[in-house]
Amino acid sequence: MMVPLDSSKKISFQRQICDGDLVIVYERHDIMKAVKVRSGSELQNRFGVFKHSDWIGKPFGSKVLSSKGGFVYLLAPTPELWTLVLSHRTQILYIADISFVISYLEIVPGCVVLESGTGSGSLTTSLARAVAPSGHVFTFDFHEQRAASAREDFERNGLSGLITVNVRDIQGEGFPAEHSGSIDAAFLDLPQPWLAIPSAVRMLKQDGVLCSFSPCVEQVQRTCSTLRSNFTDIRTFEVLLRTYEVRESKRADTTVEEEEEEGAAIGPPPQKRRQCSSTGLNPCSAERSSSVTAKPCATARGHTGYLTFARLGLREDQNAKTE
Amino acid sequence: MAEDASTATSATASAATSAAAAAASPIPRLAWEGCSVLLDANDGDRLVFARLSPAATLKIGNKKCSLAPLVGCPFGSSFRVESGPNGPFLDRFVPSTLDNCAQDIADGQLTDDQKDNRSLVDNNTAQSLSSDDIDTMRREGATGDKIIEALIANSSTFGKKTAFSQEKYKIKKQKKYAPKVLLRRPSTRSICETYFKKHPARTGFLRVDTLSLLLSMANVGAYSDVLVVDMVGGLLTGAIAERLGGTGYVCSTYFGSVPNPIDIVKMFNFSSGVCSRVVQAPFNDLCSSQSTTDELTIKSDEKADRASSNEPFVQEEDSLLECGDEDNIPAIQKSIKPGKQPSPETIKYWKENGFSSLIVAAPESKVGKLVTDLLPLLAYSAPFAIYHQYLQPLATCMHKLQTSRMAVGLQISEPWLREYQILPSRTHPHMQMNAFGGYILSGTRICSSEAFDGIKK
């Protein structure tokens, strides 16, 4: 279960992998796979054949061996891991945008949230965690098959109690009237978000927050001019992540820094080794040591989309003293 | 930082009403007496946390205004300083075009605006109205808007400015002559942004996107038991408590005898239910007897400190005014304050089950030692996120975790956040941006087989 709905479902030393659980099979930080555990099943990858029956009863986070002696780790699913393993039916949102959207929309447990489109359900899964246990996410996609696949995923991940997927063209029809005035936050990832804004205005509670995600600045431009008639606090951001790679370089050195003692004893990991020159050091007093250095990774996502946030303004008719 | 205006000690009927409303909606939409608010004067020029106690006041310019008119108003309301028979007061108004006028005039005409600054000469003669003239107007009871009108009428260059810079001029004058106050709801977003803007050092320079990432990377949600080292004033603890919504726990741990201050938690308007989930415990209480199952637990030499640490966190006089009519609420629930010590049963539960997340924001601490101390308290497969201002300690820590096989999925990331001005034909990134949001080391704790065998025995 990706989002615990009671305290017995959360991750703990006592939690063991059971038949029917979803696990994330971790090979490397960039090679992971979601697998449903079935006692008669097997997983085959470059490390060999893994029997699911060997996994059952082990704690999450365990290292498990294949027939050939290769190994993988079995992790409990989280929305972040799910984002890395889900099948891309559309372009998806990643952790930097997702985390910022949840905070900036001020979503807390119990909130009722609208989303369109559902896409591959990457953001939806994080929205579900944020509103759990008592809130709800209503998500809409005009693509019937995509909506069905997303619904299956949510069911498989134990999220169907938190998420309702509907097929609907939000740009054309707007959000269903039944949600009028009851929505804490709304998220739009649509090609023409400005078409859905009048409907979002009717859905949101006073001071509720809307977010629109668009890759192109022309879309943002039009969205913002539409937002201006009903919203305040309109702000547009771009959020990105720069990742770093860490290496240990062997060098001759005269001093061993305190924090490196352990690293030197165990030795560098095989993939991360790099020789550095030791010019300028006195070889007589030199002692073999290691130093850990970091540099930014050369490849990165340069752009995902612009995030525009806006707060529904208060209208004249909303009298201050009435509830 | 809160210019906290005196203390409100008794819960009132209005607070009870709001509490009832809060049960239906997770986000309070109206300010109530005794609640904590964020006051935004002149679009972020000044940001002040205040508590709406009956006697609370706010000084705007040289005028002192009572905050009483704010009680019962929806968050998002705007107020103007007006003069009345009993002195200046805050008057609620609904901005006509929602303050987006700069953009409204921009639509259409601005694109073709051929004006530029060739004829503007900065010789201080453009304004023919002297400060004495303005003082006279004020004495005669002119409103701020009237003064601005006069300033525009007497400016020889105003007409030559582009529509965009005319608007800028008006905004500048409005701030000076017709100050306004926006009533905002304190939330993780608004509190984090306020501190980052006004007192970043007090919250360890934690930027809102970085804080958001910490919460996501550590999988914080309902029923999480989050272990935290919060040396950012309670901002992190409060942000986690907000995500827990009265389930699970956020346990702020500390080394030595003095708990880390978590005063910022009090600005969130948390209910007693949420506050009871915010606890503080010394590291030694959490880790004893854990060492049998975890090879990396380092025996702490701070046992001596424990005796004195049983009385944690001296609350400020300013009490957290909690929702509810005190008579109607069972004694146990009465005025629960955040930061109590967890019960022995809870600590025992954590020792047996482990925490489900770990977040560290300890800018001044040796992060490597902290992480090797704390990671064994984390359940297998539980994620963690470590914030730091410097890269090297995180790189060293990451390498240590890799080689000791304590964690997988290790990654150091640096968030980058840029805000844009979006206007027709005038879209560009903001001229000023914050260039550094710190570094995060994230990963997932794994079960080394030796440790698991240890448990089985």
UniProtKB/TrEMBL annotation, chain A:
Per the database record, which ranges form the tRNA (adenine(58)-N(1))-methyltransferase catalytic subunit TRM61 C-terminal domain? 70-311
The Swiss-Prot or TrEMBL record describes its family as follows: Belongs to the class I-like SAM-binding methyltransferase superfamily. TRM61 family.
Q: Where is this region: Disordered?
A: 250-295
The source's domain of life comes to Eukaryota
- Enzyme superclass (EC): transferase
Keyword annotations from UniProtKB, A to Z? Methyltransferase, Nucleus, S-adenosyl-L-methionine, Transferase, tRNA processing
Task: Write down the InterPro entries for this protein, in alphabetical order.
Answer: SAM-dependent_MTases_sf, TRM61_C, tRNA_MeTrfase_Gcd14
Q: Which SUPFAM superfamilies match?
A: S-adenosyl-L-methionine-dependent methyltransferases
**Localization of this protein:** Nucleus
Q: Where is the composition biased (Polar residues)?
A: 276-293
User: In its UniProt entry, what is this protein called?
Assistant: tRNA (adenine(58)-N(1))-methyltransferase
Reactions catalysed: adenosine(58) in tRNA + S-adenosyl-L-methionine = N(1)-methyladenosine(58) in tRNA + S-adenosyl-L-homocysteine + H(+)
Q: What is the lineage of its organism?
A: Eukaryota, Viridiplantae, Streptophyta, Embryophyta, Tracheophyta
- Cite the GO molecular-function annotations of the record: tRNA (adenine(58)-N1)-methyltransferase activity
- What species was this sequence derived from? Ananas comosus
Return the GO cellular component terms, semicolon-separated: nucleus; tRNA (m1A) methyltransferase complex
Please tell me where S-adenosyl-L-methionine binds in this chain: S120, G121, S122, L123, D141, D169, D189
Q: According to the UniProt entry, what is the EC number of this protein?
A: 2.1.1.220
Q: Which GO terms describe its biological process?
A: tRNA methylation
TrEMBL record, chain B:
Listed A to Z, the keywords are: Methyltransferase, Nucleus, Transferase, tRNA processing
Name of this chain's protein: tRNA (adenine(58)-N(1))-methyltransferase non-catalytic subunit TRM6
List the Pfam families: Gcd10p
Q: Which biological processes are named by the entry's GO terms?
A: tRNA methylation
Its function, per the record, reads:
Substrate-binding subunit of tRNA (adenine-N1-)-methyltransferase, which catalyzes the formation of N1-methyladenine at position 58 (m1A58) in initiator methionyl-tRNA.
Specify the domain of life of the species encoding this protein.
Eukaryota
- The biased composition feature labelled Basic and acidic residues covers 298-308
Record the organism: Ananas comosus (Pineapple)
Task: Spell out the family assignment given in the record's similarity comment.
Answer: Belongs to the TRM6/GCD10 family.
Q: Where in the cell is it found?
A: Nucleus
- What would you give as a GO molecular function for this chain, any one? methyltransferase activity
Sorted alphabetically, the Gene Ontology cellular component annotations on this record are: nucleus; tRNA (m1A) methyltransferase complex
Q: How does it assemble?
A: Heterotetramer.
